[in-house]
Amino acid sequence: MTDILPASKISEVESSLVPPEPQRRRPAPKRALRRPPQLPLDDEIQAWSKPVEPVENLDSLARRYPRRKVSLSSERKALEVYDTPERPKAFAMDSLEFFFLIAQYFREALPLRLILLMIACQKAGGQIRLTQEEMATVLDVHRGKINEALQEVMSHGIVYKVRRGVYQFNPPYSYRVAEFIPGTELVEAEYVQVDQEKTLAKIRKDESLPDLVRFPSLEHMREAIEDLRKKRAEERAARRLARAQRQEEGSAQ
Fold first, then answer.
1. Nearest CA to 169 among 149, 142, 196?
2. Core-most of 1, 43, 157, 194, by most CB within 10 Å?
3. CB-count burial class (<10 Å; 0-12, 13-18, 19+) for 253
4. Average pLDDT per block of 10 residues along the chain, 253 residues long
5. Measured in whole angstroms, how far is the alpha carbon of residue 142 from the centre of its chain?
6. Exposure string over 63-91, b if 16+ CB within 10 A, otherwise e
7. What distance lies between CA 208 and its chain's CA centroid?
8. Phi-psi bin for 157: left (phi > 0), alpha (psi -120 to 50), beta?
9. Contacts of 173 (CB under 8 A, 6+ apart)
10. Does the model's pTM come out above 0.70?
11. Tens digits of per-residue pLDDT, 234-253?
């Protein structure tokens, strides 16, 4: 005969078979958010030793540091200048105001051609190593004409003579900062760079040079242009008046 368990015993057995109520998992303690390192806003020197987070966009970076200049540069492209193997990447810095005034001032073509030739032939530092015979050969004119045009150009302080066959361009008008001299089998290639400030200081210390060379100014050229325009306007007005008078005399007859 099978033993019958009492009700209390049955409830104990059932409770042991049923799994207890699952306990809720306690949330892990929140870790403090690790803020990215910030650049010191007031100490520029200390900023260089601080690590920074990667930059996703410049707008957010600019808003974070409003006192700093933020820029993004691109890869520098090759300089596009027409050159020759003998004169690679040869160019000069020229004053646009200078070009503007000499185009109005010089009424003949030869002084302008001579100025352009000297700009093209200047070395680093603005020196021009050309004799008057060579200038005459290149421009295909008589040497006497070259001498006249050169004296006129020099009278305005545009260039001055250093010695025979060597002239110097006034740096504020045209100046070649650097020059690459190709090498040969016997001589290595050389890159020459001359600071304009040093050339200016040297010119201003030389009291033997004319004032227009030491202290260049194109104001006299501007005044001459205005005087020439007024004179031409007066001449045109006089011609119109004379023509009107002749017409009146012809109609009266």
1. 196
2. 157
3. exposed
4. 58 58 63 59 60 69 77 70 75 90 94 95 92 96 95 95 94 87 78 84 92 91 92 93 87 75
5. 39
6. eeeeeeeeeeeeeeeeeeeeeeeeeeebe
7. 33
8. left
9. 94, 95, 98, 158, 216
10. no
11. 999 999 999 988 888 887 77
Task: Count CB neighbours of 181 within 10 A.
Answer: 16
The two most distant CA atoms of the chain are separated, in Å, by 170
Q: Which two tokens stand for residue 237?
A: 């007005």
Residue 33 has what pLDDT?
59
Q: Which two tokens stand for residue 12?
A: 């104990």
For the record, the structure tokens of 186 come out as 């016997």
Q: Let me know: does 44 contact 55? Beta carbons within 8 Å.
A: no
Residues 11-27 have pLDDT tens digits of 665 555 555 555 566 66
CB-facing half-sphere around the CA of 87: CA atoms within 13 A: 12
The one-letter amino acid code at 239 reads R
Q: For the chain, how are helix, strand and coil distributed in percent, rounded to 5? A: 45, 10, 45
- Side-chain-side CA neighbours of 227 within 13 Å: the count stands at 7
